[in-house]
């Protein structure tokens, strides 16, 4: 469902690097400040070459001083959004949205397990501070490849102490979801924000635990898949078109740039609005969304074009859905 947000003129007030490739950016908006609830994101208008686009970033912290803070990871395979954000200096003018929230924290649960992978710490950080403030039981598990990649970990440890546990895969430590879910009190909820592989591990362990389906909430950032990100070709027989998707662009970006009319909202694999029907494929569909179920992904009937890709080949799709009323 499309969220109700307003766009505001804004200014990049400050920026500092949290890790070699994660930058914390502080943004001041013109006009009234709308406080973000834990798990919220803001959209930021970005310029990718000639094309205007937008990116969605989780808000870091409660922002009591009236500044939105976001953390932007510089990705070597960036579609252009992170490179644009990293190019901005303090004082730069921006256009940002008021906060939206697809990852809200449920109140009054007996226990909470918050799990972050990499840059997924951003909404989890805000949730942890809110739960700490509320004085309710919770734990945070934070996984990253190297110790230097643990953005905000020291800051969070200072605020929540032993409730934070870090797992560095280069040091041989990974989150064991089955055991961690076992420790969660009955009626407790699990919140996960991380790469798609982490979400899938969490989903399998949660399903195996027999806990209610609604007790697992997750969000991803649409940049991670099972296969390396490479270019591929899209064929659309209905329009008589063949369009190349470069490695640094999403399929949705490439189709829009080629003039194909598309519908989209979240652009991070959550709402399903950008999905197209798959007619044929030469290669493996790398589903990177959290909208379709595992069964739907296995059937390869549709793909979310904003994040999903094809590994090693081409795909033939139909745009009939775009013409629906
Ligand atoms: S635009 Fe929401 S899933 Fe693609």
TrEMBL record:
Residue ranges constituting the 2Fe-2S ferredoxin-type domain according to the UniProt record: 232-323
Tree of life domain: Bacteria
Coiled-coil region(s): none
Cited Gene3D superfamilies: 3.10.20.30, Nucleotide-binding domain of ferredoxin-NADP reductase (FNR) module (3.40.50.80), Translation factors (2.40.30.10)
Domain FAD-binding FR-type, chain residue ranges per copy: 5-106
InterPro entries: 2Fe-2S_ferredoxin-like_sf, 2Fe-2S_ferredoxin-type, 2Fe2S_fd_BS, Beta-grasp_dom_sf, FAD-bd_FR_type, FNR_nucleotide-bd, MRET, OxRdtase_FAD/NAD-bd
A GO molecular-function descriptor: oxidoreductase activity
Pfam families cross-referenced by the UniProt entry: Fer2, NAD_binding_1
UniProt-recorded name of the protein: Diguanylate cyclase
Organism: Prosthecodimorpha hirschii
């Amino acid at each position: 469902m499309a969220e109700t947000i307003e766009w505001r003129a804004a200014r990049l007030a400050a920026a500092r690097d949290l890790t070699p490739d994660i930058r914390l950016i502080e943004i001041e908006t013109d006009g009234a400040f709308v406080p973000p609830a834990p798990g919220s994101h803001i959209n930021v208008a970005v310029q990718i070459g000639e094309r205007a686009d937008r990116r969605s970033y989780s808000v870091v912290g409660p922002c009591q001083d009236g500044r939105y803070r976001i953390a932007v990871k510089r990705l070597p395979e960036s579609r252009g959004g992170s490179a644009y954000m990293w190019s901005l200096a303090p004082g730069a003018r921006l256009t940002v949205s008021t906060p939206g929230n697809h990852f809200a924290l449920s109140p009054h649960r007996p226990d909470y397990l918050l799990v972050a992978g990499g840059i997924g710490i951003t909404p989890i950080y805000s949730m942890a501070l809110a739960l700490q403030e509320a004085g309710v039981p919770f734990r945070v598990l934070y996984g990253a490849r190297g110790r230097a990649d643990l953005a905000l970990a020291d800051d969070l440890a200072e605020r929540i102490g032993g409730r934070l546990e870090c797992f560095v895969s280069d040091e041989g430590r990974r989150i064991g979801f089955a055991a961690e879910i076992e420790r969660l009190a009955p009626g407790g909820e699990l919140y996960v924000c991380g790469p798609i592989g982490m979400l899938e591990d969490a989903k399998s362990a949660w399903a195996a635990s027999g806990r209610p389906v609604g007790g697992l909430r997750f969000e991803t950032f649409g940049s991670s898949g099972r296969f390396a990100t490479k270019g591929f070709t899209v064929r659309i027989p209905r329009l008589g078109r063949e369009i190349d998707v470069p490695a640094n662009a999403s399929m949705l970006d490439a189709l829009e740039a080629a003039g194909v009319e598309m519908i989209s909202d979240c652009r991070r694999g959550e709402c399903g609005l950008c999905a197209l029907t798959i007619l044929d494929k030469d290669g493996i569909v790398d589903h990177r969304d959290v909208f379709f179920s595992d069964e739907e992904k296995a059937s390869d009937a549709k793909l979310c074009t904003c994040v999903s890709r094809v590994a090693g080949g081409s795909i033939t799709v139909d745009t009939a859905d775009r013409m629906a009323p």
